[in-house]
Design goal:
Elements: H1 4-23, E1 33-34, H2 44-58, H3 62-74, H4 103-116, H5 123-137, E2 146-147, H6 170-178, H7 184-191, E3 198-200, H8 206-209, H9 227-233, E4 243-245, H10 257-263, H11 270-277, H12 279-289, H13 300-311
Antiparallel strand pairs: 1-2, 3-4
Helix pairs in contact: 2-4, 2-5, 3-5, 4-5, 7-12, 10-12, 11-12
């Protein structure tokens, strides 16, 4: 059996290999690149990292919050920090984003960056860096984040209608991802971010008592031994805002148990469990969950890092497009 030192050493080498391979990846013509701030603000990434670490120590739920924020930002107007703008009709106040967490961490990082390098680092890049740092803090892979995004000039709550929803069919989900240049494997891989996530009871309680397609009773796809556990956590007339882990048995740890749970019909969200029910997505769930290895296997940590780099280039604004906000919650006047 390998020593703990050698296993740890191999793990570090593996993560280094991921980072180096992603750093060498092409910029997809988007104008972002690794090390964009190496001269203009050399401490940019370390400032964001230390800020996220500080918030994570106080509240570990900030990690899934920041990861979800990046996803929701990129799927509406591209990765341009439009999700950070405050106001009654902005993305931030639209129903899909009302329970997002992590805004304080972004604002704190921006304050420190403005003190160190005024007008240089975009809020969009802060979100992308914070998402990566959050995954690392929960035991997931690291990757080289391409930076150079600029902040968008539009934030409209109505645009959030295009965000993937927990009641969407697999065909609709695949279409929404394809619209962003992301394929079926990316859909399954990025859904795996739920390994560290939680959901409010209000978003899945209908599966436990009044399932929409049966009209009465629970969703028949839920493992009968798992159903009572969910019902105990989310009583029929209980608190709809109570949060429940999306990865049963592995709360807050970035690992593949999310996929093994789907294989065992223990997905919490309807959209998650559909990834196992649909043949086109099941093949990727199976390859992540194992025990298949070799040519048929997929390394979740490697593929997740690749998919995050790919998603981080969705609709980015670079060059003279957009702006570098002075504060992340408001457009420059």
């Amino acid at each position: 059996m390998a020593s703990s030192w050698s296993l740890c050493h191999l793990g570090r080498l593996h993560l280094l290999a991921i980072s180096l391979s992603l750093a060498a990846a092409p910029a997809l013509g988007q104008g972002t690149r690794v090390g964009f701030y190496s001269s203009s603000c050399p401490r940019a990434e370390s400032i964001v990292r230390s800020t996220v670490q500080s918030h994570f120590r106080s509240d570990p739920t900030v990690a899934p919050g920041l990861l979800r924020m990046h996803f929701h930002d990129c799927f509406v107007q591209g990765c341009d920090a439009s999700i950070l703008i405050t106001g009654p009709s902005t993305e931030r106040n639209a129903p899909p984003n009302l329970l997002l967490r992590g805004f304080d961490a972004i604002d704190n990082a921006k304050t420190q960056l403005e003190a160190a390098c005024p007008g240089v680092v975009s809020c969009a890049d802060i979100i992308a860096l914070a998402a990566r740092d959050s995954v690392v803090l929960t035991g997931g892979p690291s990757w080289a984040v391409r930076t150079g995004r600029r902040d968008g000039l539009v934030s409209s709550g109505s645009d959030t209608a295009n965000l993937p929803a927990f009641t969407d069919s697999i065909d609709i989900l695949k279409s929404k991802f394809l619209d962003k240049g992301l394929n079926t494997q990316d859909l399954v891989t990025l859904s795996g971010g739920h390994t560290i996530g939680t959901s409010a009871c209000q978003f899945f309680r209908y599966r436990l008592y009044n399932f929409t397609t049966t009209g009465n009773g629970a969703d028949p796809s839920i493992d009968p031994t798992f159903l009572p556990q969910l019902q105990a956590l989310c009583p029929a007339n209980g608190d709809g805002t109570r949060r429940v882990a999306l990865d049963n048995g592995s709360v807050g740890r970035f690992d593949v148990s999310y996929f093994t749970n789907l294989r065992n019909n223990r997905g919490v969200l309807e959209s998650d469990q559909k990834l196992w029910a649909d043949a086109s997505t099941r093949v990727f769930v199976q390859r992540f969950a194992g025990p298949i290895r070799g040519l048929l296997g997929l390394r979740f940590d490697v593929e997740f890092a690749r998919a995050m780099v790919k998603m981080g280039d969705v609709g980015v604004k670079t060059g003279t497009d957009g702006e570098i906000r002075r504060v992340c919650t408001a457009f420059n006047s």
